[in-house]
Amino acid sequence: MADQTIIRFENVTKQYDQDPAVLNDVSFSIERGRFYTLLGPSGCGKTTILRLIAGFTEPTKGNIYFHEKVMNDVPANKRQVNTVFQDYALFPHLNVFENVAFGLRIKGCKNDEIKRKVLEALRFVNLVGYENREIKEMSGGQRQRVAIARAIVNEPEVILLDEPLSALDLKLRTEMQYELRELQRRLGITFVFVTHDQEEALAMSDEIFVLNEGNIEQSGTPTDIYDEPINRFVADFIGESNIVPGVMKEDYLVQCAGKNFDCVDGGFNRNEQVEIVIRPEDLEITLPDQGKLRMKVDSQLFRGVHYEICGYDQDGNEWLVHSTKKANVGEEIGLYFDPEAIHVMRLGETEEEFDKRLEAYSEATHAD
Ligand SMILES: Nc1ncnc2c1ncn2[C@@H]1O[C@H](COP(=O)(O)OP(=O)(O)OP(=O)(O)O)[C@@H](O)[C@H]1O
What is the pTM of this model? Predict the structure, then answer.
């Protein structure tokens, strides 16, 4: 719904000095109460988007709207946005209470209001009782919660989080993923979270924007992006994939390694060159003549929950299989997969073209 939109980027380009643009003509909307993740490799422009939302830098071209009002040059302190930085940026000489109270004091709030709001924010992050602690006496996870309490204390509409979990060890990081997600649900404040960790993005988000070299390659729910990546970059970046060349013979029928396979995709041209994606966990090991493809096993690793088996089909395509069944190096095995496990990608298709094709295709199939 339009009135749910808090922030909108319209054809935003950002260029620092004479360098090539770090964001190219980026458009997207951020809605109320949702958890968004900006995901992409180092240098793709994630932090630049946060800085533009926060008001720490201005777009070179295009517009940034808050509630449909242009905000391009509105200063950071006039925006209903707070940022949690990677290193938390806490004040080491102030205790927990004063760290959280800082913004309210700057605003000139009265002492009793400050006390009420700080205690409420600390209650949200389970830190009541820690008010007088020094920052250096707090653990990594606790410091992060102080930083979040400081960000929520003056009830912003949006909280920006720039890789806030990257400094934590794996166990704490997983715990904090749950905590952050839960906190966002309870608060109902929109979170825009930056990470280059795809599992973290899949676990936490309502919506993910996958970025590459200053462009949003694809946006959607975690399952949309995992099940229907629009191109090789997204398929590769989000989880492990088998990506092999194919030819679309007709709707629902794709050819790969010299064989025809039923699939659930359509809207392609007859005999169009495509790429097909099958996730390693969607491949099942069978006897050689009971599978849909034959593969010669080249290597195998035991990963605890499954074996990671690599090999080649008769066309030389490489396949990666995650299976609870063991295979033997050098052995020929069969691979079985359901038609739904195949996802067909059109070469060079943009997200807009992908959406249009799906729409046209679903209208055509419903008209039949
Ligand atoms: N102030 C600046 N002046 C010039 N170039 C900059 C500036 N800030 C960022 N850049 C460049 O813009 C590009 C995008 O940087 P950005 O920090 O947005 O990427 P990122 O996706 O957040 O990367 P990381 O995951 O490594 O933090 C990089 O090439 C970076 O060197």
Answer: 0.90
Cα 48 to averaged position of ligand 1 atoms, centre (Å): 6
Label residue 49 exposed, middle or buried (CB < 10 Å: 0-12, 13-18, 19+).
buried
Q: Read off the pLDDT of residues 40-71 as tens digits, 9 standing for 90 and up.
A: 999 999 999 999 999 999 999 999 999 989 99
Instruction: Give a yes or no: residue 74 inside a domain.
Output: yes
- The CATH number linked to 329 is 2.40.50.140
Domain that holds residue 273: 240-279+338-367
- Structure ipTM: 0.96
Q: Which two tokens stand for residue 254?
A: 């794709």
The 3-state secondary structure of 56-114 reads CCCCCEEEEEECCEECCCCCHHHCCEEEECCCCCCCCCCEHHHHHHHHHHHHCCCHHHH
57 part of a folded domain: yes
Mutation test residue for ligand 1: of 47, 56, 163, 196, the one with most atoms within 8 Å of CB: 47
- Give the residue whose CA is nearest to atom 13 of ligand 1: 43
Q: What residues flank ligand 1, with Cβ below 6 Å?
A: 16, 19, 22, 40, 42-48, 196
Ligand 1 centroid to Cα of residue 40, in Å, is: 12
